[in-house]
Specification:
This protein is mainly α. The chain has six helices and two strands. Helix 1 runs antiparallel to helix 6 and helix 4 runs antiparallel to helix 5. The longest helix is centred in the middle third of the chain and has 29 residues. The radius of gyration is 18 Å and the shape is elongated.
Length: about 160
């Protein structure tokens, strides 16, 4: 894939993940929104919201999503601006990896501790993985670029 395609994945995942996270935040403040995405006893935003398990270290889950996806977009833009500095691309990979790890934990809590799944949260988790895939591609390209010899061939070894 081209570098541009990986950047587009980061922006696509980050942007739509941010929208899903903002919607999740709105659900907390407007109960009618959480009822709109509650389909049954298992696939239910309401079930998750009423579980009492929607915070990590006292911080609401949605705030991690809003802040995390905003950070992905900012660091993604910096990685594009500073294309020749692989450290920024690696920082993007670190941010997205941390987000995917947190999403995996939150998904575990939803499915195994609460016994349900929030479609809005699952959408945000999915777009976090999309952004992470883009960051992995960018990091691989940055690594290859940094480890080329002056003749343009990869270093042996």
């Amino acid at each position: 894939m081209r570098t541009r395609s990986f950047r587009e994945l980061v922006y696509f995942g980050g942007g739509l993940g941010l929208i899903a996270s903002v919607y999740a935040a709105a659900e907390v403040h407007d109960a009618s929104l959480s009822k709109a995405c509650s389909f049954n006893g298992v696939v239910s935003c309401n079930l998750i919201l009423e579980s009492g398990k929607t915070t990590v270290l006292g911080i609401p889950d949605w705030s991690f999503g809003v802040a995390g996806f905003a950070l992905i977009l900012v660091v993604g833009a910096l990685a594009e601006w500073y294309r020749r500095d692989p450290r920024v691309t690696y920082a993007l990979l670190a941010v997205t990896s941390l987000g995917v790890a947190l999403a995996a934990y939150l998904l575990y809590v939803e499915v195994f501790e609460i016994g349900g799944i929030c479609p809005v949260c699952a959408t945000a988790y999915f777009f976090g993985v999309v952004a992470w895939c883009g960051a992995v591609g960018l990091a691989r390209k940055a690594y290859r670029r940094a480890h080329r010899t002056p003749s343009g061939t990869p270093e042996p070894g």
